[in-house]
């Protein structure tokens, strides 16, 4: 994500969840030229801002290349869902909206 999705190096907020067999329901054929296997991996990414079509395409390609070369996951088994939102829809701590925190940080500098 740092190399291809314009994410800062220290931006580390990740949840990794492995589900038991049978707990992930995924249509093997939906919008997939090659049928998905039981090894399907779904990435749900929440981004604070939208990326260009070119940036997203570069990220998808790099992700599938890296997964195939490092752990043998077939590109057909990789699904990515990117959702974007605004800064005010985040609260990083103390129940304070992130946009209020940023405004507060700017006034104390």
From TrEMBL:
Entry-linked Gene3D superfamilies: Macrophage Migration Inhibitory Factor
UniProt xrefs under SUPFAM superfamilies: Tautomerase/MIF
UniProt feature, compositional bias: Polar residues: 100-109
InterPro entries: Tauto_MSAD (IPR037479), Tautomerase/MIF_sf (IPR014347)
Superkingdom assignment: Bacteria
Location of the region described as Disordered in the Swiss-Prot/TrEMBL record: 90-109
Pfam family, one: Tautomerase_2
Protein name per the record: Putative tautomerase
Organism: Marinobacterium lacunae
